[in-house]
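Run log // design_07
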């Protein structure tokens, strides 16, 4: 595998291989946990890539699964070693959504639905600061600055000259109308959205109030897809204290269908750009 694969994706791939080995032996995660005297949740976290995995863990699991091919064992142990390397985001210290950043960094395409906040990859620095200060009122200035810098660093995926992220966003009219920061900050943010929407790899659609009820009323979500066929698509649901990652094919398909309905109800990309610029003009009189 390519040496530049980030540690989050390494863990996912390693977890998938370990799951295949377990299923080939017709063993449940509970049975494996009993053999190794560990919790079932540890086995589950190792397989879904949410937990760092050591070479000792791999060796023990290969022993349980009676893997006789030494080359396979060596390959899996090397993957475990590589998965413990640090991605660029680790330089910022403890980040609660580091798993998501790792996935986003390696994703080939990203589809998001947002109803209240401009997607992070599209935010201006001033808007990002106002959002962070409003959502985390107890955050210290250093914590706020760290979150801003991480957000700006993530945006490099949209400007990568070699391999830019294919980005599609459906956004509710509500987030265009909510004045974050002040009218000047908001107007600049809207003009920034319109400008970004002109990039060939960025598609932005507005879901106007007039459509009424729609599937996105369940809440915001993101669908990440990857270049390598072995890397399954992931649905990301952000929470206040914890996040949810859905990888089962049926779950991903359900959200993909929901997204198609949202795209169908939303304004076209050109209509959306015009709509956003009109709202920006309206803010001049605020």
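design_07 sequence
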């Amino acid at each position: 595998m390519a040496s530049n694969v980030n540690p989050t994706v390494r863990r996912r791939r390693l977890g998938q291989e370990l799951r295949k080995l377990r299923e080939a032996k017709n063993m449940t995660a509970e049975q494996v946990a009993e053999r190794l005297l560990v919790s079932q949740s540890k086995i589950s976290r190792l397989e879904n890539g949410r937990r760092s995995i050591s070479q000792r863990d791999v060796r023990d699991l290969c022993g349980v699964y009676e893997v006789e091919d030494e080359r396979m064992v060596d390959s899996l142990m090397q993957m475990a070693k590589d998965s413990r390397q640090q991605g660029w985001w680790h330089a910022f210290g403890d980040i609660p959504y580091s798993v998501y950043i790792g996935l986003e960094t390696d994703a080939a395409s990203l589809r998001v639905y947002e109803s209240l906040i401009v997607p992070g990859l599209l935010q201006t620095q001033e808007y990002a600061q106002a959002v962070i200060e409003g959502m985390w009122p107890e955050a210290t200035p250093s914590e706020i600055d760290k979150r801003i810098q991480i957000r700006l660093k993530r945006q490099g995926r949209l400007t990568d000259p070699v391999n830019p992220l294919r980005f599609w966003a459906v956004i509710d009219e509500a987030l265009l109308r909510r004045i974050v920061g002040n009218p000047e900050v908001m107007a600049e943010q809207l003009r920034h959205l319109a400008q970004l929407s002109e990039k060939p790899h960025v598609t932005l659609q507005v879901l106007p109030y007039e459509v009424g009820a729609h599937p996105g009323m369940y809440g915001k979500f993101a669908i990440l897809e990857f270049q390598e066929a072995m890397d399954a698509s992931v649905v990301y649901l952000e929470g206040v204290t914890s996040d949810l990652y859905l990888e089962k094919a049926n779950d991903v398909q359900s959200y993909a269908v929901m997204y198609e309905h949202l795209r169908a109800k939303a304004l076209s990309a050109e209509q959306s750009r015009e709509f956003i610029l009109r709202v920006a003009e309206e803010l001049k009189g605020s």
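The chain is about 50% helix and 10% strand.
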